[in-house]
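input
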Amino acid sequence: MNLSLYAYDSHWISIDCGMMIRQDLPDSPLQVPNLDTAKALGIIPQALFITHGHEDHIGAVAWLWPHWGCPIYATPLAGALLRLKFAERNLSPAAIHIVEPGEALESGPFTLRYLPVTHSIPESCALMVSVGPYRLLHTGDWKLDSDPLIGTPVTAAQFRALAPVDLVVGDSTNAPMPGHSGSEGEVAAALERTLRQCPGRVVVSCFASNLARISAIGQAARRCGRRVSLMGRSMERMVSVARGLGYLEDFPSLVPLHDLGYLPPDEIVVIATGSQGEPRAALHRLVQGHHPLFELKPDDSVIFSAKAIPGNERLIERLKQGLDRLGVTVYDEFSHPELHATGHPAQEELKKLYQWLQPGHLLPVHGEARHQQAHQQLASELGIEAPLAPVNGDLIRFDNDGLNLERRHPQPPCIVSQNSVVPHPGLEANNRNRRHGSLYLALSVTATETGWSRIGRLILDNSETSPMDEQSFTDWLDEQVEEIHAETLAELRLALQPRLIGWLAEHLHRMPDVHLQIMAAEMPADS
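output
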């Protein structure tokens, strides 16, 4: 989880607001930052700045932002993902403001500039923060990649121009790693070589947010004469959002999962969620034989194009044991390290950035204690003051005397349910105040050879909501109904509801309560 709070002259801002999945607990609930300390100290941020769209940086926003009600600033991809999350929780997206990389913003005495960096998700940015007499760089997650596939490499001149900075709040995730992190371009070439030697169907599992990796898999599949399908809701959502923003323009056309049975095994690549052994994810369902449209067989291969997050090793090992029992060939970070590249800087990249910035002080964040300590050691070798390795809840002062720990506030876990459809405790009133009216929608559909089609009159009552373009809405709705693959009306409604909420969140000023009814009807005889 990432939630950093900065204050100057009693004006508070927040950078990032992430969550983590507690796979060690029943039903894999979510853990979000605990706000008890902030409430006790009277801390309410006046603005929330998002560095990039990973769940450990945006996943808790929809849970915690209603306590603050402040403006949220994010780049287009992170902003689109946040709007989807707000729609799912019936929150108005009006507070979400889109920032282009390179843009500067102000909040009270703070001036923040978004500086593009390469990472495993597009539009990642470091934040250059100027406040009072101080200039600090909050790096977010970053690396130096000369061939990132999506986006452009880091501009050295841009960071040299900032030198010297007073403080770097810096990513420690790979600080113990010597040398340089790999390039996404190198991974793409390795994926193509591997696909060419796999005899049957291939499932590649990676993080849904790693769009460069997804693009590389798609391009490698195309060059190897294979068709691509997606498996997992988060994978489908991320690819849909990315395409809408102009990413993945060269990505091959997708094959629906239910059509894969018509293709020869050596013409199939499935990009699936579940590289961390998540019990709810697509890869776990395949191992358990619970997927209704796809079954792994002995000639198939599974590629783990992701590194194990610390704490997930046991789940991943159990998953691999299941694959072994099925006779599936497994490629992972140990047997084929070339099939993954980290999104965080190794030692030579850290040294290069600090040579550009010439910082006086470093606060090592992200990672575990051993990563922070390795970061401190590297800073010491470069003559940078790094006296602290902070833990969650530390209140730290930075002034002319350097970095000093003022107080350590214990942070008990705050657990919320992934399946919860009720607001987080204490948010009910805020949610109610942000809704506006009710929208009632009833549509008749009929089954076709390829899915469903709307027929007859659309019953739409939005008299209590803000105005909307009904013709555009109807056209959009028809496209969605025909695009969704569902066996039953219940499945169709389940698939259509979140898309409907997302569209309304994008096009209405206030988010209404949505009541959706779908009825089966016969196609007229003259059709």
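quick obs: Confidence is low (pLDDT under 50) at residues 421-435, 523-527.
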